[in-house]
């Protein structure tokens, strides 16, 4: 089984050496190429693409490109500063983050054990996926997404409602799955998001808030996974490693301020 994981990138950054990975310049339309060494990144504005939607769809323009243009038996998505890794914290500390990323053999082994590889759960404990979104962003995005799904895929509302109530989630739009499942997921997801795009006016939103379709999709992915599990598909979690230190005190304070003092997020942490 041939497997490829795209790395959503919008600036020059260190690139994994293993050919499992395809560094992809997302939102490339109208922008100069990103160089690394003597090479340039693959761009998401070739072939069948939605590169111009990147300010609102984030890394999903890369997922769309992979869906429509990559030739591989299994396809995944990671980020330039967030990757899958099976290595222990001790190994990562000793060898370094870029020598600790998921390998081709590890990805192959995971896909033998389960149908869908997802990132390890992010646990919110005192929040559901819906309430966390409502406290930090604009809950009407999720309400409208539910309405669209009710019209297009009413049989999936039960999974949407279950996902909205979860106090944990598979986040970051990261996954690895066989192409037939990716075809199914992307057909479902983008059909919903393109209709949602018709119903939400983003023209008055600031740059941070306008990235809403990428955020909504993180939660919809959880609903789709619940449905696949009910259909007998198996899911396996893979830990995620941050390539840069995370300011957890600042992140936690932002989370608590949103929940208890109604301070919406204005930037990423």
How would you portray this structure in words?
This protein has 269 residues and is of the alpha/beta class. It has one domain (3-261). It has helices at residues 54-57, 60-69, 89-95, 104-113, 129-136, 140-152, 157-165, 179-199, 212-230, 248-261; strands at residues 3-9, 21-25, 35-36, 39-40, 42-43, 74-79, 82-84, 116-119, 122-123, 168-169, 175-178, 235-238, 240-242. The strands form five sheets. The chain has a five-stranded mixed beta sheet with strand order 5-2-1-6-11, with helices on both faces. It has a two-stranded antiparallel sheet with strand order 3-4. Strands 7-13 form a two-stranded antiparallel ribbon. Helix 6 crosses helix 8 (179-199). The termini are far apart.
Key words describing this protein structure:
10 helices; 269 residues; two-stranded antiparallel ribbon; five-stranded mixed β-sheet
In short:
With 269 residues, the chain is an alpha/beta fold.
Query: How many helical elements?
Result: 10
Spatial gap, N to C terminus: 37 Å
SS class:
alpha/beta
For the largest beta-sheet, the strand count, sense and barrel status come to:
5 strands, mixed
Strand content: 15-25%
The count of domains is 1
Count of extended strands: 13
Low-confidence stretches: none
Q: Output mean pLDDT.
A: 93
Query: H/E order of the elements?
Result: EEEEEHHEEHHEEHHHEEHHEEH
Helical residues, percent? 40-55%
The value of Rg in angstroms is 18 Å
Q: Categorize the overall geometry.
A: globular
Strand order of the largest sheet: 5-2-1-6-11
